[in-house]
Amino acid sequence: STYPTLTSVVDYGDSWRKTQGSGGYDLRAICITKKNSGDCALSPTAPKPRFFVMGQLHAREITTGDMAYRWIDHLTQGYGTDAEVTALLDTTEVWVVPIANPDGVNIVQQGGNTPRYQRKNANTTNGSNCSGTSSSQIGIDLNRNTDSHWGGEGTSSNPCDQTYKGPSANSEVETKALQALWRNLYQDRRGTGTTDPAPADTTGVVISMHSYSNLVLFPWGWTTSYKTGNDAALRGMAKDMATIAGGWQYGQPGEVLYNAAGATDDWVYDALGTASFVWEIGPGSGTCSGFFPTFSCQTSTFWPKVKPMLLYAAKKAA
Length: 318
Ligand code: 0X9
Ligand code: ZN
Fold this sequence. Notes:
The chain is of the alpha/beta class. Helices cover 31% and strands 14% of the residues. The chain has an eight-stranded mixed sheet with strand order 1-2-4-3-5-8-6-7, sandwiched between helices. The longest helix is centred in the C-terminal third of the chain and has 21 residues, at 296-316. Residues 109-169 are annotated as: Disordered.
C-alpha cells in the first residue's frame, strides 16, 4: 500500500486450515510493475511479459520466504532510483508468492526459538495419525501433489512421510490455487507431444525457490529418460544462473539430485509450456547451513547471490 502505482496484491485462494474454518490464511501474491491500464490483471493475455517467483512451498525452507520479501523490497524501493530496477518494472510484470504454504509456516513458527521442521501443508484428513516429529509429520507434500506424473518416482503413499503425494493428483487447495493462478498468468504455449510439449521459445519464467543444495534445476524432474524440447535453452539459462550464484551445480533434478514426480516446476512446463526452474538455495558455511540459518546469513550469504539471479531471470522473461 506504500507503493500503489507499483503494486497490486491478489488473494488467490485459501490455505487448508482456512477452508476448515480453523485458523489458516489467505494465499497471497503481489504483482509489481510500473502500472499502466491492463497491468496486473488475472488474465493470460497481458501487455507485458511476466516473471514469477515463489517461496516457502516447503515451509521449513525459510531462506526462500526471506529472499522473496527482500526481492519485493528491492523492487518497490528501487523504482526511480535504481536504473536496473526501473527498466525492469517499466517493461515486465514481476509476480511474487512469498509464502506458498502458510499453514506449514505457522507450524514451523510454533516452535519459537527451535522451529519445527514442517515441510508439508497442514491437511490432517489423510495424516492425522502422524506424530509431528521431523520424520513423521502431518500433511501432503505440495511438491509431489500435482498431476504432472503424479505418483511417479520419488513420491510416497505413506501419509506420514515427508514426500507424501496426497490421496489424488491436485488434491490440495494450495496446489489447485497455484495452478489457477498460473493459468491466469500464462497462456498455454505448449507444442504437441506428451513428453515433449516444447513451446517455440522460453518466454515467461517461473522460479520456485527451495533449500538447500546449491543447485539450479529445470524440467524434467520426474525422469532423466527424457529431455524437454527446450533442453538446450533451459540448460543454458541454468548454467548462467549457477555461474551468477558462484558455481552451483545445475541440471535436471535426476542428474544432480534425484528424480521426483508431481512437483510444481514440472507442472508449469508440462501444463503451460512456460520455462521453469528450481533454485536450491544454500547451505552456506557454519551457522549459514541447515534449514534455519542464523538471520544475518540472509543478508551476508544468500541475498548477494539471489538478487543477481533474480535480476537475470526476470530479464529472461521478456
Ligand atoms: O524434493 C523436492 O521437492 C526439491 N528438493 S527439496 O530439498 N527442497 O525438497 C527438488 C524438486 C526438484 N524438481 C523436481 N523434481 N521436479
Ligand atoms: Zn523444497
